[in-house]
């Protein structure tokens, strides 16, 4: 399943606290379509990431959580995050951003459920 996102949905109407541009070579090809989300939502600081989720519009949060329901994407993501690279020190910027992306998406799921 491929996820199509517009720039405004990806950013949630905000440009705050995004991570630097990620190097595609550091991300498995099966996950490249998630790089734009990881660059915006993969914020390492818990407080900043949670604040961004709290301030985001529902449409941005819905776009953020959409990948959680994509079995193939999640299988590839979990395989990468639980694989060999999980032992790398220091962790790559891409690995850290994707780890934070999952945390942001899970918190966004909770926020959406509470808003309804």
3D architecture notes:
By secondary structure, this protein is mainly alpha-helical. The protein has 6 helices and no strands. 28% of the residues are buried. The model has no long low-confidence stretch (mean pLDDT 87).
Give the topology:
Blueprint: H1 7-11, H2 35-41, H3 46-55, H4 58-65, H5 71-81, H6 93-115
What can be said about this structure in brief?
With 116 residues, this protein is an all-alpha fold. The chain is 55% helix and 0% strand.
Which descriptors would you attach to this protein?
116 residues, mainly alpha, 6 helices, 55% helix
Distance between the termini: 26 Å
Structural class by helix and strand composition: mainly alpha
Helix amount, in percent? 55-70%
Mean pLDDT: 87
Low-confidence parts, pLDDT < 50 over ≥5 residues? none
Instruction: Count every beta strand, where a strand is a DSSP E run of 2 or more residues.
Output: 0
Largest β sheet strand count, sense and barrel closure: none
From the alpha-carbon coordinates, what is the Rg to the nearest angstrom? Answer: 13 Å
Question: How much strand content do the residues show?
Answer: under 5%
Q: How would you sum up the global shape?
A: globular
Number of helices: 6
Helix/strand order: HHHHHH
